[in-house]
Amino acid sequence: MSFDTLGLAEPLVRALSVAGYTEPTSVQAEAIPAAMSGTDLMVSSRTGSGKTASFMLPALMRVLALRESEPKPAPMPRNDGPRGPGFERGPRGPRFVPQGPSVLVLAPTRELALQVAKAASDYGRYIPGLRVATVVGGVPYGAQLRALSGPLDILIATPGRLLDHLGAGKLPLGRVGFFVLDEADRMLDMGFIDDIHAIAEALPQQRQTVMFSATFSGPAGRLAEELLREPRRIEVASHTETHADIEQRLHWADDLRHKNALLDHILTTREVDQALVFTSTQRDAEVLATRLAEMGHQVDALHGGMPQGRRNRVLDQLRNRRLRVLVATDVAARGIDVKTISHVINYGLPMKEEDYVHRIGRTGRAGRTGLAVTLAERRDFGMVQRIQRFTTQRIPAATITGLEPRTPEPAARPKPGFGAKPGPKRFGNGPKPGYGKPFARGAAKPSR
Ligand code: AMP
């Protein structure tokens, strides 16, 4: 299948060929025609699957269609200043009345919003005068206000800051005909539910809404019921998919010193092109980045406690390959799309099992393969089990010669409802090599 057969306009097909895309990914093949038919959509698809293009290309099609259909303003006398949609005659010549965007995308984090904005500009590069603006927290209001007061096609925003502008009466949303919620489950996790409702209420009733979420169970499903009208469900890959491009490994560490030795060994192997190392806290990210820098690694930290300017500079350095290692927390790493990340290393385990899936999805992108290594201490046993249950996959345990753990590998004890169902991908169906062994005598009971 090629992009031409999806019914995309020529400027978009040209931009995709410049981007080097030869064929649509599965989610694009399904979601693009569906979105272009005008129906509301609920899409579950993991990051790295090409989901951004699957809503941005239909969004750009809508912008193109509006360009054709919107009435041109009445001709004004020459030398009367700028003209075009949105300009009206004022006492001192033409003045611009902000019309607001026709496409609105909400994203959970600044990084993801900026990533989506880049996709809009890349895929829309051959649409003359395309106007894309981003409204995210943590940056000064001035530039955003200027962008909002000019003509606008596509607005990409994080909910909190968008609501600020809306409350200040600086943002007309009456023209929005295409509304996208990207990573909706994540926005709900971050507590944006009321903001999303307030924003949706400011939008026209007559609109198309497209919602992307890793899951549609629980709050995300309820939000979909509230915001979508007769949606079509597109499920390309769920959290139970195999992540065929990502090899996963689990190393058990005796203690912090052992964990550091394992990390140091992995980071010095030649296979590491670029590595993203996750910690559980901002402080751990700082401490670890400092230690790795002292060892001579090209490394920096990225976490939500850093000012936005510095976060952007760190990401640029990662993209320009001036960094080989980035030590990050979950929120800050969301939306990182760097194809050369060959390794994701879980140095601190995530707080939530979904985050494991988001983390490992930072590697193995755009057709490349990646390695996701989890370094777990005995006290992480409960979380490792929860992750395996969530993904319905076992993370194969591995060892490094000379750095084998001294204490035996923790083992799962059968729990009601866990491992009860037989099946090739399930685990816990009895002892497996290196997994599922009974507790070794005297071994510390892992904390849960
Ligand atoms: P996303 O899931 O939107 O974060 O996209 C993941 C990566 O895949 C990005 O680097 C995109 O540039 C890339 N990508 C998206 N669509 C395609 C495609 N059809 N062919 C090749 N790469 C793509």
Question: Can you describe this structure?
Answer:
Strand 2 (87-90) and strand 3 (93-96) form a beta hairpin. This protein has helices at residues 10-19, 26-36, 51-69, 110-123, 141-149, 159-167, 184-189, 193-201, 219-227, 256-267, 282-294, 308-319, 330-333, 353-360, 381-391; strands spanning 41-44, 87-90, 93-96, 103-106, 132-135, 154-157, 178-181, 208-212, 232-235, 246-253, 274-278, 299-302, 325-328, 341-346, 370-377. The chain folds into two domains: 3-68 and 98-235, P-loop containing nucleotide triphosphate hydrolases (Rossmann fold), CATH 3.40.50.300; 239-448, Rossmann fold. With 448 residues, it is an alpha/beta fold. The protein starts with 9 loop residues before the first helix and ends in a 57-residue tail after the last helix. The strands form three sheets. Strands 5-6-4-7-8-1-9 form a seven-stranded parallel beta sheet. The chain has a six-stranded parallel beta sheet with strand order 10-15-14-11-13-12, with helices on both faces. It has a two-stranded antiparallel sheet with strand order 2-3. It is elongated. Helix 2 (26-36) runs parallel beside helix 3 and helix 3 (51-69) packs across helix 4. The structure holds adenosine monophosphate. Adenosine monophosphate binds at residues 21, 24-25, 28, 47-53, 337, 339, 365-366. The site of adenosine monophosphate (AMP) has 15 residues, from helix 3.
